[in-house]
Amino acid sequence: MAKKAKKQQAQSGGTPATVALTTAGTVFTVHAYEHDPSHPSYGEEAAEAMGVSPDRVFKTLVADVDGRLTVAVVPVAGQLDLKALAAAVGGKRAAMADPALAERTTGYVRGGISPLGQRKKLPTVIDASAGSHATICVSAGRRGLEVELSPTDLAALTGAVLAPVGRV
Q1: Alpha-carbon distance 147 to 161, whole Å?
Q2: Half-sphere exposure in the Cβ direction for 28 (13 Å, CA)
Q3: Predicted structure pTM score
Q4: Which among 167, 135, 145 has a CA at the least distance from the CA of 46?
């Protein structure tokens, strides 16, 4: 991250994700809520706290596809289809990444991993269902903080492809 962006982040109290959005001039809305550590699902907690349908709130998962970390952004109401993710990036096999490796690589903690502003840019696939919504919500880079933006903007900023990688 450039020194100017780090300074802006420190001054604004933002996260690398919100700094990336601001720097890109992207229209977005921040939603903050009180995170409950006892809640069994980060994504479902976010949907409930914001009063947003779970099909519009997307979780960010990191998988290992043929030895290469890959980000999948899928609705919190469903699950990641690992075979579909592998196919979407031209791979053969996919498995969930080690959580500690995902945290080190992205710069975020589990439950707060954002597809935006990651420490290392990773190949990203957004579930095709995102395209049916004007806006979706994804983690803003920490538990209890979400950003709402258009799926088109999210795909452009992350270099993502849209593919059917989620399942109910």
Answers
A1: 19
A2: 28
A3: 0.89
A4: 145
